[in-house]
Amino acid sequence: MTDLVKLVSIMTEVIDQLLGVLQEFLWPQEREKQRAKRQRVIVAATHHFLRFGYQKASMDEIAINAGVSKGALYLYFPSKLNLLFSALAYEGEQYFQHHLAMKDLQWTPRQRLKWMIGQSFAHHETSPLSTKMLSQTSDFSVVMADYSLERETFEALRHAEMRLLDALIADLLGSSFDEAEIKIISGMTYDLIAGLVLVPETLRQTPLSQFDLATELIISGLEHLKPGELLEPKNDEANRSNPILAGASQKVVMRQ
Q1: Considering Cα of 162, then 113, then 199, then 254, what sign does the dihedral take?
Q2: From the centroid of its chain, how far is CA 251?
Q3: All domains in the chain, ordered by first residue
Q4: Residue 78 backbone dihedrals phi, psi, to 5 degrees
Q5: Cα–Cα distance between 160 and 144 in angstroms, integer?
Q6: Nearest Cα to 116, choosing from 129, 102, 135, 126?
Q7: d(CA 138, CA 63)
Q8: I need a labelling partner for 14 at 20 to 30 A (CA). Which of 8, 46, 94, 168 fits?
Q9: Between 32-52 and 59-66, two packed helices, what is the crossing angle to 10 degrees?
């Protein structure tokens, strides 16, 4: 199996896994009429959360807008947090189905990684509810405080996203880097991307128009890494001059 065929296979498997996790969370086994009602509530809730945010959102008003009783609403969604995560998952399902598809299999490894990072940055345009939640600092804090209630589903999503990033970075850097080092590098890259995406608009120092430059900066930094540089710094002087690398070399955490 060629490297390209292997990468495409991994990407297809990961995207299927992402969709599977979202769909399992969103759509329990139920009749078509019930599913249509569930979807109607999710759409109504999305519009309501977009207008009022999370803390000010009213389950009573969402029920009215969806044309269901309050009792029926709680039968489908046991809490406002569960309904918010369902709306976010529905938005994510649409995103993965329609946007996360590589346009050209003949791209170079650099182009493939740049495409993936660009999709992460463009997520705000295709997922307005996610963008609003991230831009509302107080709402985001409240949601994160209760995050443990839905942790299993979103940890599965993160794990799948990391598999995709691992594969693309390994594709870029080549076989000279071992699996442990690839995981460290992709973890750092994930955190850099998440940092740019999660920073509220009011605090962001990089305008959206310059995210392409940020992508170039990330990829150029990756291309200048040398095999073994993160796991085995050459000497104590290297550690002292680069405390980030020193810390990374002491905390090798293998993702399961």
Answers
A1: positive
A2: 23
A3: 3-225 (1.10.357.10)
A4: -65, -15
A5: 20
A6: 102
A7: 24
A8: 46
A9: 130
Based on C-alpha coordinates, what's the Rg of the chain? 21
Q: Is 124 in contact with 197 (CB distance < 8 Å)? A: yes
Q: Is the pTM of the predicted complex or chain greater than 0.85?
A: no
Distance CA 25, CA 86 (A): 8
Q: Which residue has the tokens 């080549």?
A: 174
pLDDT score, position 93: 87
- Residues 211 and 195: beta-carbon distance below 8 Å: no
For 100-134, how does the pLDDT look when each residue is reduced to its tens digit (9 = 90+)? 665 556 788 898 889 888 888 777 667 888 877 76
Taking the C-alpha atoms of residue 105 and residue 140, their distance in angstroms, rounded to an integer, is 37
CA proximity to 36, closest of 47, 46, 44: 44
